[in-house]
Amino acid sequence: MKDLGFNPGAHSGGETPVPIPNTAVKPSSAEDTALATEWENRSVPGLKISLGEWRRQKASPFQINSFWHKKEACMPFEIDKSIEEAWTLPAQVYTDPQLYQHLLERVFLTSWQFVADTDSVRIPGTVFPFTLLEGSLEEPLLLTRDMHDQLHCLSNVCTHRGNLVVETPGNERYLRCRYHGRRFGLDGKFQHMPEFEGVCGFPSEKDNLPEVPFGVWGKFIFASLKPMCPFEAFIAPMQERVGWLPLHEFRYDPARSRDYLVRANWALYCDNYLEGFHIPFVHPSLNEALDYGSYRTELFRYSSLQVGIAKGGEDCFELPPDSPDYGQAIAAYYFWLFPNLMFNFYPWGLSINVVKPLGVDLTRVSFLSYVWRAERLHSGAGAELDRVEREDEAVVEATQRGVRSRLYDRGRYSPTREQGVHHFHRLLAEHLP
Ligand code: FES
Ligand SMILES: [Fe+2]
Fold this sequence. Notes:
Layout: H1 30-41, H2 51-59, H3 62-68, H4 97-108, E1 113-117, E2 126-132, E3 139-145, E4 151-155, E5 170-171, E6 175-176, E7 183-184, E8 190-192, E9 214-217, E10 220-223, H5 231-242, E11 251-252, E12 258-262, H6 266-273, H7 279-282, H8 284-289, E13 296-299, E14 303-309, E15 330-337, E16 341-346, E17 349-359, E18 362-371, H9 385-403, H10 419-431
Antiparallel strand pairs: 1-10, 2-3, 2-5, 3-4, 6-7, 7-8, 9-10, 11-18, 12-18, 13-14, 14-15, 15-16, 16-17, 17-18
């Protein structure tokens, strides 16, 4: 263990080492003075730290791990595969701006993202520009349906000098960049450019709009800039479990869709989603609809499923005989797709949640409602989604304030209730330094 200026032999109960005060260091700025005062004012019996020690931790956040826990318990970013042995993610994953950027590049760039439904590109000639993960990746992309009824997902950036090719949805016979008139087919292939006679090696493949990998499940379109796995493998667990639903009959309902701004890290929001452990504590109304004792989690390579069983008399799916859950009163299937997509199936339809990072401690969560059986909207586990979301937001925002604490770093998992969180953290750890 590194010499961090405290007595490793001193303990305040349990195994948490208690630092002993160093010689006080004179504060050098108003900010330091305020922080030092804040620190000194904390009433933590038997626990004190000098300003100098605090500064060293601030300058080297990675040391905080080994400071508060036994070294072997907190190797940075290793999540033991045994949930009984494992410690949760180090707190700085939720608070460190550099790690936040790293995860955007390593996790989000390679992820499959839900981008639109096929109703947005129903007719040949339709062009549908969108931004992949606005607020973080900010990648301008374009869906088109060509005259042969083929869907395409393309870069929306002109291969000349980078103008956006399509700015609004519409119906077109070809794509024309309005900056200098470069023209592309609806399949993204270069067609024409004025004033380019004599340009060597022109046009070439590089003058086509780059194609972006995409996949369609039911009516839902996903895209990935650099897929970490084939789309079929990514979507297979959901297809196998709820592929029997008539997804093409689900209709997007803008009146029941909205965005929530959450003052917390995106991964903290996902952590909360991935366990039903908190339901009896945080969601009294949802707890009335679900049988907590039979709530269960199933894990897949890049996704997980939480199955909510209805309490007696509450609304549930009429499952087909070939469903693996046939005979059970399923109130909700909560599918989570790594890293940030939630597909929540209820007897009334589907609520998609897209968790969009905006900053290290700011997240936008888009709730998109697809209604199948409107008459069932007000019953069962999917009845009060807005209330449940606000309850979740409050606890996630409080947790964000908590993980910033100098006194918190990592916790342990419940082996029976937090398998989904452990699985998520293991996936993140695969992508962390
Ligand atoms: S940037 Fe598109 S034609 Fe020049
Ligand atoms: Fe919740």
